[in-house]
Amino acid sequence: MKKYYRYLTLGLILIFSGCGNDPQEANKKNFANAISDYIKSDKSKLGCINVYGLSFQKYAQENYEKLSQEGILTFTVNKIKPKKNLLTGELMTEGRTYSVSEKAKPFYKNNQICIGQVELQEIVQFTKPVQVMKFIMSEVTYKYKVSYPSWVRGKDSEIKKEKRGLILTNNGWVHEKLYQ
């Protein structure tokens, strides 16, 4: 009889230990995983700057002057053959070559400098999942924090709030913008 209770107890423990880990269940933990995947992949939330081939002529340098003042980019002044600017009609004789500064190099990847660090703060609320056409969806409101390195002047941590749809897949919940 003791063996029976032992096996019964062990069986119940095994059965219930698997409960609550269903990735398709609509709960804050599963939604947090899906939203974290999204906000870490969305470069616009990370304060990313595109820096394709950082060589610009005089008319384009204004966009990168502030980045240079922040210490994100460095530049050298180059003499170039005078050309007529098609937009303004001015002759251009000076250009700048910008490059990524040493302190920004850890943030440089794939022709972008992403200076922000993003972290999900909380799932505020979510709706009961419903069938929308061929999808099962839930609308989730969440808060996330964007932090910047101390050397970026004028940028303090920000808490932002968003409301987005999550789609249920066979692998669990996925942010609507990551669904393929």
Residues in helix, %: 10-25%
Q: What's the number of extended β-strand segments? A: 11
Radius of gyration: 26 Å
Note the gap between the termini.
54 Å
Domains, number: 2
Tertiary shape: elongated
Q: Please work out how many helical segments DSSP would assign.
A: 3
Strand content: 35-45%
Mean pLDDT: 77
The secondary-structure class comes to alpha+beta
Contiguous uncertain segments of 5+ residues: 55-60
Order of helices and strands: HHEEHEEEEEEEEE
Q: How can the largest sheet be summarized?
A: 5 strands, antiparallel
Written overview of the protein:
The protein is an alpha+beta fold. It folds into two domains: 24-47 and 116-175, no CATH class; 49-112, no CATH class. 21% of the residues lie in helices and 42% in strands. The chain has three helices and eleven strands, in the order H-H-E-E-H-E-E-E-E-E-E-E-E-E. It has helices at residues 2-17, 28-41, 62-69, and strands spanning 48-50, 55-57, 73-84, 91-100, 108-109, 112-114, 117-126, 130-132, 135-147, 158-169, 172-175. Strands 7, 8, 9, 10 and 11 form a five-stranded antiparallel β-sheet that branches. A three-stranded antiparallel β-sheet has the order 1-6-5, with no helix packed on it. The longest helix is centred in the N-terminal third of the chain and has 16 residues, at 2-17. The termini are far apart. The model is unreliable at 55-60 (pLDDT under 50).
